Amino acid sequence: MDYFLVVLLQIVGAVGNLALISVGLAVIFGMMRVINLAHGEFIMLGGFAAIFSAQAGINIWIAMLVVAPLSVALLGVVVERLIMRRLYGRLVDTMLASWGLSLLLIGLATTFFGNRVVGIAAPVGSFRIGAYSLGAYDFVLAGVAALVFAGGYALLRFTSLGLVARATMQNREMASSLGIEPSRVYAVTFAVGAGLSGLAGGLLAPISGVLPTMGVAYVAKAFITVITGGASVITGTALSSALLGGINTVSTFLTTPVIGDVALLLAATIFLRILPTGITGRIFKGAP
Amino acid sequence: MTFPALLRASRTHVALAAIATTAAILILPTAAPLYTLINITLYMSMGVFALSLALLWGYGGILCFGQSAFFGLGAYAYAIAALNFGDTTLAAGFAVAVPAIFAAGLGYFLFYGRLSDVYLGVITLTVTLILFKLINSTGGDAWRIGTARIGGFNGIPNTPLLTMPFTTVPLSPPQMFVFATGALFSTYALCKGLIVTPFGRAVIAVRENEMRAELLGYNARRLKLAVFVIAAAIAGLAGLLFANSVFVSPTMFSLSMAAQVLIWVVVGGLGTLFGPVAACFALQIATVALGKLGLVDPNIVLGVVLIIFVVLVPGGIQPALTSLARRLFDADRRSATSPIREAVQ
C-alpha cells in the first residue's frame, strides 16, 4: 500500500516536472508556430540565473521564481528582435536558426561559466511515508506547474489579452486587419515563452544542478510532450504531460531510468502513428 | 532508367568528380604525410555522411534532424559484427544493412503516420538522443553482444580495421584512403544517378507537392520511406568509414554530430550534392584550425555560422555562387542549369 502511494506520488512529481519543462516551448510553438530548439538552453540559462542570484545573496525563492524567468524573458525579447522576427512563417528555418542559437548559447555558457555542474541546495526537505522517504521539492514543482497551467488557461480563456493572443494565433492577417499588431503580440508571446522556460530552469536548478550542456536532456522530452499534446497550448500540454509522465515513471520503476526514457519516446512515436495531430488535434479540439 | 540516360543527365558532374577522385588517389598517398592522409580519410567519411542528408533533405524534402542515429548505428553494427565474426567484409555489410533496417522500421511510423516534416525532424532528433543515452549507459561487463563489449561512454577502442576481402591483412592508411575516396565518389555518382531515375523524379515530385504527386498516382509514403532507407544506408557506410579512421564511440550519436551534418547541408546549399560535401570539408578544416587556436569554443562558431546562413543566405553557398556565376557569364544559360532542374522539367 505504501509502495503504491509512493509510486503514485512519484508520478505526480514526474508529470509536474514534464509539464513545467514543456510549457514554455508549447507557448512559443503553439501560438507562433516557431520551433524553438534553443528551449533547453533557455532552461539552462534560467538555472544559471537562479543559482548566481542566490549566491549573490538574493532569497532563493525570489531567485527561482522571479529573477530566472525575468532574465530569460529579457533574452527572449532580444532573440525575437534579432533573429526570429525575420523567420515567421518559415517553420523549418526557425528550427535551424534556433538550433544555431542553441549551439551559440552552449558555447557562450561553456566559455563564461565553465564546463562544470553548479548547484544549490533544495529549499525544502523530505518527508516519510511508511518506510519510504520522498523529496518534498517534487511537489513544489508540481504545485508551480499546476498554478502556471491554471493561470495560463484563465488568461487565454477569460481576459481580453488572451482573446487577442488567440485571435493572432488563429489568423494573423485577419487579426491585423482588426487593429491588432501581430509583431507586438509575437514579441510578447516569445518573451512569455522564454520566461516560462527560464522559470522551469530556475526551479530545476536545485534538483538537477546546472551545466552548459544540460539543455539537450530537456529539449527532446519537451518537444515530444508538446507534439503529443497537439494544437492546444494549455490543455494539450497538460494532458500529454500526464500521459507521458505516467508512462515514464512506471517504466522507470519497473526497469531503469534510461529504459524509462526509451519507453516515453516509443509510446509517443506509436501514439503519433495513431493520432498524428496529437491529443487536442482530434479529441479535445478547440480548447485553449 | 537506362545507363546512357543516366550518363546524359549527370555526365559532366560525374566525370569531373571522377577525374578529381583519380587525381587524389594517385597523388595524395605519395605526396601527403601520413597524419594528413588519415585526416583526409576522416573528412571523406564525413563527406559521405553529408551526402546522405543532402540526398534525403535536399531531394527527398525530408528533414531528418537525427541522421547521426544511422551514422552511429552503422559504426556500432560494424564494430560489433567484426568483433564477433572476425571477418570485416561481412561486418561491412552489417554497417549498411542495420541502419537501413532500423530506418525502415522507424520510417514506417513516421511516414505512414503522415507526420509533417517538423514533427519528423523532432522525432528523429529524439531517436538519436535516446540512442546516445542508451549507448552511454552500457558501461560494465554485463553489456555485451556476443563477444563484443559495448563499452558505454568509452566506446569500442579496439574497433577492428577493415581487411582485404577474405584475408586477415588490415588495410594500410593509404589503402584506407583510396577506399574512402572511392566510397565518396561512388556515393556521389549513386546519388546523382538516383536523382535522374524515374524513382528519383517521383521523389522530387513528392518533395515539390505531395498531394499533387499522390493524385497523379504515386505512392508518396512508400517513396519517402524508400529514400529514407537509402539515405540511412549511406549514413551507415559513412559510419563504417568513420569507425575505421577513428573508432566507435557514443559521440557519433551526439547532438553536435547531428548538428554538424545539418550545417554542412545548409551552408553548402539545399538541393545540391556537391555543395554539402564542399561545405563539410571547409567547415571541418576550419573547426580543427579553430580548435588548435583554442580561442573560441567551436560551438560558438558553428552556431553563428548556422544562424547567419539561415537568416541571410538561405539558399546556401553553391546556389549563391552558381547564380553569381550565371550573372557574370550570362552567355550560356543552359549549361548553368543544374541537372535537378532538368530532372524536374
Explain this structure.
The complex is a heterodimer of chains A (288) and B (345). Chain A has twelve helices and two strands; from the N terminus they run ααααββαααααααα. Chain A has a two-stranded antiparallel sheet with strand order 1-2. In chain A, helix 1 (2-32) packs antiparallel against helix 10 and helix 9 packs across helix 10. Chain A is globular. With 288 residues, chain A is mainly α. By secondary structure, chain B is mostly helical. Chain B is 74% helix and 1% strand. Chain B has helices at residues 3-31, 34-59, 67-85, 88-112, 117-136, 173-196, 198-208, 210-215, 220-245, 255-268, 274-293, 298-312, 317-328, 333-336, 339-344, and strands at residues 144-145, 148-149. Chain B has a two-stranded antiparallel ribbon with strand order 1-2. In chain B, strand 1 (144-145) and strand 2 (148-149) form a beta hairpin. The radius of gyration of chain B is 20 Å and the shape is globular. The chains are: A mainly alpha (288), B mainly alpha (345). Chain A binds chain B through residues 35, 83, 86-87, 91-93, 95-97, 99-108, 110-111, 216, 220, 223-224, 227, 256, 258, 261-262, 265, 268-270, 272-274, 276, and chain B through 63, 65, 106, 109, 112-115, 117-119, 121-123, 125-127, 129-130, 133-134, 137, 255-256, 259, 262, 266, 296-307, 310-311, 314.
